[in-house]
Amino acid sequence: MKVEHLEEHVNDYRESIKTVVDKKIQWKSSAKKRIIRVLKSIAKSYNIGWKVQELNWIYNNEAVNITFNSFPSDLIDCTNKVPTYQFIQGGALVFSQSYSGDVYVIVLFPFVEQLQMENISIELGFYNPAEITEKLIIEKVDEFLKEMIKWEVPSYKTTLGFHHKEI
To answer: What is this structure's pTM?
Structure first.
């Protein structure tokens, strides 16, 4: 290996570290604040029992999520019709900063001990913090709600005793 190649790779490595630092600054200075603001606005405008959380994960990575925390108050009368109905907390849309400074967007499904689920999460995308716009956040909340509706009312039976077969 020639010395020129080594110097080139050393310079590339320096640039890669600078890129990560720039992304982390972008997350801290604007993307995270925008996510929090938009999600809080959505939670306030559409009161369906969700809340916004800021999380600090391992190795100083941060995340923001919107999660279903309580049963929607305007539907309480519905549950009185079925006394055994139990609201399952959980389900979250998570915007999580990765080690590289990019932002993972994932859906976490509620955890139910009695059910074995094939997928406990779905990845909705991987974005540079500069790409996190109000429009993108709203689109991801929309995708999240669609996934939660499919989880609540699946198109085919996935509980014990039912097996889905392709025809």
So the answer is: 0.79
